[in-house]
Structures are given as structure tokens and as C-alpha cells.
Amino acid sequence: MQAGAVDDSTHLRLGIGLAAVARPAYITSGRDRDLGADRGVDDLRTRTWALLDAAHAAGIRYVDVARSYGRAEEFVAGWLTARPGTGDVQIGSKWGYRYVGEWRVDADVHEVKDHSAGAFAEQSAQTLQLLGDRLRIYHVHSATLETGVLDDVVVHRAMAALRDRGVRVGVSTSGPAQADAVRRALEVLVDGEPLFSSVQSTWNLLEPSVGPALAEAAQAGVHVIVKEAVANGRLAPGGGDGSPGVRRAEALAERLGVPIDRLAVAAVLAQPWAGRVLSGAVDPAHLASSLAAGDVVVPDGVVEEIAGVSGTAQEYWGARSRRRWA
């Protein structure tokens, strides 16, 4: 059920992620409807600033960007400079992918992955040049066992040096083996001390398999951030794909009398290990729906019910990998 007013604490747990608004193409559903055709650099800068203004006015104080999110870091840096009252905003960014889409929706390749020590040196320098001491968290972007970054002692030493400058370092994860990556990250030590103190993973009603590993991370004192709560738009109004899990979530949202995206965000907020939940909103109205999620009481058993008809993690990530950039 939905109460009459927004939970005053929700804004403290929400962050705003710029993956879908700071570059012209992404895999989120409904971009033609949400962004329209005007996606030049100035257009998306203006949209990003309006979103950040709305988030700050609502009390949100965490912004998530990445080197591969088009001009996200540049947009945020400009906004921070233009808004002197934003000294309390913390920025988290990520290294490990390069944006190569040349601001084209029809690019053959939009980003490339590189988890080498050289990539860290290059990209962390670029990030620090733009964000300086406003950078509070720096993640390996989509760390997996296969890339070797979780066993690369040279990278670990370099990230430890950044940590020693006061930046929290961590990993973001994607793919059906997220849990393995999270647990391996918890084991990484530098000079006998845990290196990673933050983890950002995909968890949603359609793909909750990483949940137990995130609970272990939180128990170990690691800050847990959840991304893709609305499954790249599949759990947003008008973004459903007719799959069994989406249909079940849509039916439940209708019974509760709330938009499906609000239910999806509320389900993440209900997880005791979820320290922060990212909203992928691209306009203030989307953001308002995320903020209202704090008033939604998620019935017991919902996660298990929806996940039970959603297919395996492998199927979820296989479908995600086939989504068209638009």
C-alpha cells in the first residue's frame, strides 16, 4: 500500500545515476519517448543539469557516473561549478570502460572494456582532473573473474594509492556470475588489509541472484550500492516486454495501485543490505516516482514470486546483452 507522504529517509538512500542521460544511446527502454530526438551535447547537458537540480532539491546527495557514460563526468563537474550550494554532494565514478561511440546513436560500438593497469592510470587521472576532491568512490567497472582485474596486484596497488588519498575504492559487477565477483573482491588484500570497501551490483525483481553475496558484503562492512533496479526500463511504465516476470510485477503493481517502477525501487529499498539505491531517472518526474518508493510496503514473498517465473540469471543477462542501443 502507499502512504500519503514520501518517507523522509528515502532521499538519504537514493542516488542518481547518469548512465541513461549523459550519452545519446543506451539500452534503456523507451528512450525515444523519454529523450526524443534532441540528443546533442548541449541538449543532454541541459537535461542532466535539470535532473541534478531536481535531485539536489529533493535531498539526494550521491551521483553515480563513469568514464564510459559519454560526458557524465564533464556534465557533473560543470554542474558542481555552476551550483555553489552543492558542496555536500558526493560523486562516485568508475574506470575500466572507454566511451567510443562518438556521440552517435548508430555507432557500431559504444564502449570498450579494459581492466589493465594502464587503463586505470589513464582513466583515474582523467576523472581526478574533472572531479578532484569531489570524487568519493571509484569502482572497477563491471569487474569479473574473467578479466583478471580481481587478481592483478599491480592494479590493486594503484587503487590502494588512491584509497590512501581518501577515495573509497570498490567494484561494480554485472553478469550471471556477479556473486562470484563480489565474493572474490571481498578477499582482495593489500598489505594485509581489505582493499575494496564498496560494491555496486545489479539487483532487481527479475534478477536477484547476487543478493546473498551482497548481504555478506554488507555484513563485512562494505558499502553496497544497487544499480538497474528497473532492469534497464523493463520494470518501468511502458517498458514491459511481456515476459512472465514482468507481467507478474505489472499485475502486483496494479494491485498495489502504484507504478511498476516505484514497486521495483521499493523492493530494493526493502533489502536490509542495500545501503544505496540508484535511480536511473532521465527527468524529474521519473525521479519523483523513485522518491515515492519509500512509501510502498512490499508484501512478503514478492521477490521470490517474481524471480520464480523470471528464468535463470543466465537467461536474464543473455537477454540484456541482446538489447539494442537506442
Automatic annotation (TrEMBL):
Signal peptide: none
InterPro entries on file: AKR2_Oxidoreductase, NADP_OxRdtase_dom
NADP-dependent oxidoreductase domain boundaries: 50-308
Source species, domain of life: Bacteria
Protein's UniProt name: Aldo/keto reductase
Native species: Pseudonocardia abyssalis
Native organism taxonomy: Bacteria, Bacillati, Actinomycetota, Actinomycetes, Pseudonocardiales
